[in-house]
Amino acid sequence: MDSLIELKNISASYNGAVVLNNVNFTIREGDFIGVIGPNGGGKTTLLKIILGLVKPVSGDIIFNREKITPKKIGYLPQMAEGDGNFPVSVLDVVLSGLMMLKKDTARMDRNDKEKAEETLKDLGIYHLRNKTLNMLSGGELQRVYLSRALVGSPKLLLLDEPGNFVDTSFEQGFYDKLKELNREMTILMVSHDVGTISAFVKSFACVNRKLHFHDSGRITTGQLKAYDCPIQLIAHGDVPHTVLKNH
Ligand SMILES: Nc1ncnc2c1ncn2[C@@H]1O[C@H](COP(=O)(O)OP(=O)(O)OP(=O)(O)O)[C@@H](O)[C@H]1O
Ligand SMILES: [Mg+2]
Q1: 211-229 burial: b if 16+ Cβ within 10 Å, else e
Q2: How many CB atoms lie within 10 A of CB 79?
């Protein structure tokens, strides 16, 4: 697989506290990477570094410009309590995902609106288009944000804990959708649900100040320990239930 983006010796800190320490990581075209690690381990920071929202204190981020530019990254941020608590319409939120791709002066046109509507249809939430965010459930809101991430046809999709608000009835469809999207785009997804995502991710990145790349969709508790990646393994189907204690 060709490299899309390469992180070389990246370190990040907030107010002097080191969060990522000398991270080396290559995102390869077509990969589906599960990003795992304990709370506060630096997963969201890693995504923000890739997006240019957090500046590393040292190291380099190298884009393979033949394959990708920063604008071709779709981003679904980690949701927090109170998100979506304002009366902006679903359609406008999805359209905002196209705004970033435009020149400063350009306005939204008919084409953009059609694109946004297509994306909503594709994710099965077209009927919500005129609702405002504060009227939506957590799962619906999550799908609206996913639409915003997808509307610009990204080459790389960054998802920060998308499963958290997904109820079980929607879960399988959601993951099937991601699998389908992975045929067209590279995906990097933060999740705590290692058992579920191991059914379809192609590799893992364990993030706990350091980053360990694991080039397989299967990972054992022994490997997680070796990577100093203390996470909870949640039981799903026949995946054994194991809880690794924090250390
Ligand atoms: N803007 C910020 N200012 C100061 N400290 C921050 C900031 N953002 C994150 N941190 C701290 O950096 C560390 C890593 O945070 P980050 O959000 O990257 O972790 P995470 O792995 O995504 O955790 P979680 O699983 O809880 O989402 C944490 O200790 C957090 O408190
Ligand atoms: Mg996070």
Answers
A1: bbbbeebebeeeebeebeb
A2: 17
pLDDT tens for each residue of 9-57: 999 999 999 999 999 999 999 999 999 999 999 999 999 999 999 999 9
For 129, phi and psi rounded to 5 degrees? Answer: -55, -35
- How long a stretch of residues is the chain? 247
Residues with CB under 6 A from ligand 1: 14, 19, 37, 39-45, 78
The CATH 3.40.50.300 domain(s) of the chain lie at 1-68+155-247
Architecture of domain 1-68+155-247: 3-Layer(aba) Sandwich (3.40)
Render pLDDT for 126-162 as a digit per residue (tens, 0 to 9): 999 999 999 998 888 888 999 999 999 999 999 999 8
Distance 223 CA to ligand 2 centre (A): 22
CB burial of residue 240 (10 Å; 0-12, 13-18, 19+) = exposed
Could you tell me the two tokens for 217?
């969709």
